[in-house]
Write a structure and sequence with these properties.
about 100 residues; 3 helices; single chain; two-stranded parallel ribbon; alpha+beta
């Protein structure tokens, strides 16, 4: 995903340095909470709204983000380690 996006934007990215992963078993995947996924999408949309309004218009209709293939979604709030808007770690509340 990173390589494809970098190439699309005209960056000189060396894809041979990126680990190629075909398919991993669930035991090797990384869990991510649904709340963290929604938070990341909200954070991305806030940046896009300012920096790339046209792309923001396409992205704002996404309500349930799909994780990268290295991750799988579990139920839960925003991760405890997340620092939001300079307020320090989250209270792990759902968005």
């Amino acid at each position: 995903y990173i390589y494809l996006e970098a190439t699309k934007r005209g960056y000189a990215f060396q894809d041979r340095k990126i680990l190629k992963v075909k398919r991993l078993s669930k035991g090797k995947l990384i869990p991510v909470t649904s709340g963290q996924m929604r938070y990341e999408l909200s954070h991305l949309n806030a940046k896009l709204k300012k920096r790339s309004p046209e792309f923001y218009k396409k992205m704002k209709s996404i309500n349930v983000p799909k994780p990268h293939p290295l991750f799988y979604t579990i139920r839960g709030g925003i991760e405890d380690w997340e620092v939001r808007d300079g307020l320090g770690p989250s209270t792990n509340a759902l968005l």
